[in-house]
Structures are given as structure tokens and as C-alpha cells.
Amino acid sequence: NAGVTQTPKFRVLKTGQSMTLLCAQDMNHEYMYWYRQDPGMGLRLIHYSVGEGTTAKGEVPDGYNVSRLKKQNFLLGLESAAPSQTSVYFCASSYEGRRRSSTDTQYFGPGTRLTVL
Amino acid sequence: DQQVKQNSPSLSVQEGRISILNCDYTNSMFDYFLWYKKYPAEGPTFLISISSIKDKNEDGRFTVFLNKSAKHLSLHIVPSQPGDSAVYFCAASASGNFNKFYFGSGTKLNVKP
């Protein structure tokens, strides 16, 4: 049981280039999330998905697109990367959108460190 | 404007002593609070949570206290161990809604042997 995995772990892009970050989970979770972490800012939600084929905007969605074609995968795309998108990106998943017990939570992947020059 | 704040970027504690990490929030609709622990090059991992119907939740060496009137929560680690050295994030949500977790900026704890 690998949990939540992210590909790649590191990437350097030039301004204007595009790329896709892949998140995969093997826990059969319905909900998946993409966050970015910046110094002094904590984690901020970019987009999330409540099930296969659905996506929704989070707190900071501009400049990103997502797709959830399969339940276990959640892709984050940058169409034209900008230096402001230099960050560490975390994917997370949860069983469902509402808490069922005191130990329900989101499970996080190890992160992707992206640098845009 | 951040709705969850951790005003101490770092904390250093001697092994065996108590570590107290603090978190403040501004949104009175928040009713579920969590602490996550993060080691370098890893994702955050769930540590402990508390619902607003409680003012204390304990799990081994970790205790979370919630003061709703002050909109303040704290994480106590007793006794602190070197392996506890990590960044700790608090997070909050409203109505148990996992779609909207709001995170603080984190506190880096260093437990000295």
C-alpha cells in the first residue's frame, strides 16, 4: 500500500513552459486535492476533486488546470509556467468530503519541488 | 488574509521537557482542528485532531487544547524527544468539510538531546 505518490519529485522549468504533475493514490479515496506550500504561507488549496470526472477551484486556482479521469489519479497542469509558481506542490486524498470519525483526515504525498526560472 | 496563524516560526526545547506549539484562528465557523507533522522531503502526516465540542484531546505524548472563546489551540508534547523535531502545521475546517482545510504557516520544532 503506497498511499499517495507524486511524480516527479523535482522539476526546473523556464518561464512559459508547460508541465503536468501526477498524483496517484491506492486507498480508493473519493476526494483528492492539490496544495502549494510557500515560505510563511502554509499550505494553500489550488484545486480539488470530489470524485472521478469532477474538479473544483480552491483558494489559489489561477494559472493551473486539473483533471481527474480516473479515481486513483489527479493531474495538475501548468500551461505557461511563471516564476510566481515556484513552490512545493502537495497532493492529498481523503475517503470522502465529510468527517466520519476523529481520525478522518487528508493523506498527503511527499511533494514536488518546482522551480520556474 | 490568513484565517489560521502560527506566530512562532520556530521553537527549541530540551529533550524530556514539554513542547507547546500555538495556533490562532479568526473564523468562528471553524469546528474541527488538526495538527500535522512534517519531516523534510516528506508530506505532512496527521498527528491529532479535536472537534469544537471538546476542549481537550489526548493521544499518548500529544495533547491538543482548544479555547473557543479565545480562538486558540495548542499542541503539547510531553516528554519531547529528538524524533519530534519537525515542522508542525495546524489546520482548521468548518462543519467537518474536508474541501476547505485552512493551514497555518507552520512551526519548526527542534528538540535538543
Please give the structural blueprint.
The complex is a heterodimer of chains A (117) and B (113).
Chain A lengths: L3 E4 L2 E4 L5 E7 L5 E8 L3 E8 L6 E2 L7 E3 L5 E6 L8 E8 L12 E2 L3 E5 L1
Parallel strand pairs in A: 2-11
Antiparallel strand pairs in A: 1-3, 3-8, 4-5, 4-9, 5-6, 7-8, 9-10, 9-11
Chain B lengths: L3 E2 L4 E5 L4 E7 L4 E9 L6 E7 L4 E4 L2 E6 L4 E6 L8 E9 L7 E2 L3 E6 L1
Parallel strand pairs in B: 2-11
Antiparallel strand pairs in B: 1-3, 3-8, 4-5, 4-9, 6-7, 7-8, 9-10, 9-11
What is the tally of helical segments of chain B? 0
Distance between the termini of chain A: 36 Å
Determine the strand fraction of chain B and express it as a percent band: over 45%
The SS-based structural class of chain B is mainly beta
Provide the succession of SSEs of chain B. Answer: EEEEEEEEEEE
Whole-Å distance between the termini of chain B?
38 Å
* Strand composition percent of chain A: over 45%
Helix percent of chain B reads under 10%
Q: Based on Cα principal axes, name the global outline of chain B.
A: globular
Low-confidence stretches of chain B: none
The biggest sheet of chain B amounts to:
6 strands, mixed
In total, how many beta strands of chain A?
11
